[in-house]
Each structure stands twice: as C-alpha cells, then as structure tokens.
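Structure (tokenized):
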C-alpha cells in the first residue's frame, strides 16, 4: 500500500508556525495542493479556513490543536504522525448552501461549513417568517437575527447565541435565534439535516437584513433559502481516542 503524502498548513500565529517548522523538518512536506492528506495546525477557525481552501480537492484534513478550544482538532504531538493518520477515524460532513435574493434583484449563492446567519442592519429589529420543508413554522420572529448551524459550526457562533452543541454524527441542524424578542420564549429548534429552510424578511425595506454563509455575504436580503449540499463532502480525521462526545457533554455543563 502506498503511503499517503502529507501537506502541512498553519495558522498565522507563533505557536502554529513553530509546530509547522518542526513537523516539516521531521517528516518533509508535499505542497498542500498536491498532498493526499492535509495536516492543519491551529484552532477551529483555522480548520474552517482549511476546509474552504481545499473544498474542491476533497482530501481529508487532520487537525492538530495550536489554537484555543479546538473542538475539531486532535492533540498536538510530533511523534508517529503517519501512523496516527493511518489509524484515524473519518467524519464526513456536508456544508449548507445558501441562496439569497437581495432587494436589488441580485441572487447570492454561498456555501457554509459553520452556519448561515441573518443579522439586522439598523436599529430596528428584524422581522422574519420561517418555513421548514415548505410549511410555515413561525409566522414572525422579531429578533436581531437567526441562523442555521451545522454540527461542525454548532460550537462557534451558534454556541455564543445559546444554541445547542451537536455531535458530528447527529444528522441534525440547529435553528437558533439571535437575541429573540418575540416569541419571547422561543429558543430555536433542532431540524433533520435534510430539512430545507426558508427565511422571508417582513418589512424588509424598513428593517434591512444581511445574510452570511461563512465568508459569503448577501446585502439587504428579501428571501434566503438554506439546505444541505449533499453533492459536496468534507472529510475530517480524528484520533480514535479523540473523545469529541465527552468534550461536547462537558461544555454543556460548564458554568
């Protein structure tokens, strides 16, 4: 069996740069655009950057934590890297595809590995109608905004907005309001990963809303459709002892 070639990428921080130099000196390095496996050195944000950067190649990415939290990263260790990669377990993710119709007639299409978020742009709260699979589920959400988060993104903005943390294999999406005012007690919903969500802006001219799919922003949207893109696959590699489930449980009980 041919040994997979490894390419290294690192976040622009000193610790990641030092780790990059040490790993290259120890194992050599194939250019990332030619490698069979990418090793990403950084935190969860850098993992997101790496997934986007190599999206079209479909190569697996093995992260090693040189950041802060690192939910999606393995423990950093220079030893036995090829063996660790060979023994790693693969998690396959599908991003969200956003289709946003703007008030100037422009249609903006974007992919989100973390989340699609809608945010008010003025002092007026947004008013948004939410439909799931063609059925109106919430006639009017009055809030600063709302988002749909993937399991990979559930520990990012979604968590800050008090949304649930989703295990990578949960096959769920988190629909999470941002500072909801009405309905006051609504805290969001868990949706099947194949659900199609539509957001319609009410009073859009007076209450402008922008939509963002990771790095793609659509200004002053009227309608935003969000659904999982099953044609695009992202592959993350985890050490067998990388107990993400335990970290997810612990995070939810932290004060």
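Design, position by position:
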């Amino acid at each position: 069996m041919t040994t997979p070639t490894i390419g290294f990428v690192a976040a622009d921080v000193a610790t990641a740069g030092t780790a990059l130099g040490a790993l290259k000196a120890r194992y050599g390095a194939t250019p990332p655009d030619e490698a069979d496996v990418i090793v990403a050195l950084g935190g969860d944000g850098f993992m997101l950057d790496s997934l986007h950067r190599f999206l079209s190649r479909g190569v697996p990415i093995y992260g090693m934590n040189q950041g802060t939290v690192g939910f999606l990263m393995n423990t950093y260790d220079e030893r036995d890297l090829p063996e660790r990669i060979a023994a790693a377990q693969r998690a396959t993710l599908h991003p969200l595809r956003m289709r946003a119709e703007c008030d100037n007639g422009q249609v903006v299409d974007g992919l989100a590995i973390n989340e699609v978020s809608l945010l008010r742009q003025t002092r007026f709260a947004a008013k948004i109608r939410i439909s799931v699979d063609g059925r109106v589920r919430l006639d009017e959400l009055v809030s600063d905004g709302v988002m749909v988060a993937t399991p990979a993104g559930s520990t990012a903005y979604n968590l800050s907005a008090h949304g649930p943390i989703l295990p990578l294999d949960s096959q769920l999406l988190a629909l999470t309001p941002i500072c909801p005012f009405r309905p006051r007690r609504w805290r969001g919903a868990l949706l099947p990963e194949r659900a199609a969500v539509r957001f319609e802006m009410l009073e859009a001219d007076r209450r402008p809303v922008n939509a963002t799919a990771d790095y793609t922003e659509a200004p002053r949207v009227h309608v935003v459709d969000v659904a999982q893109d099953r044609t695009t696959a992202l592959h993350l590699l985890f050490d067998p002892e990388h107990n993400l489930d335990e970290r997810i449980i612990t995070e939810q009980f932290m004060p």
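Reviewer-requested clarification: Residues 6-93+233-252 form a domain with the Rossmann fold fold (CATH 3.40.50.10330). The longest strand covers residues 135-143.
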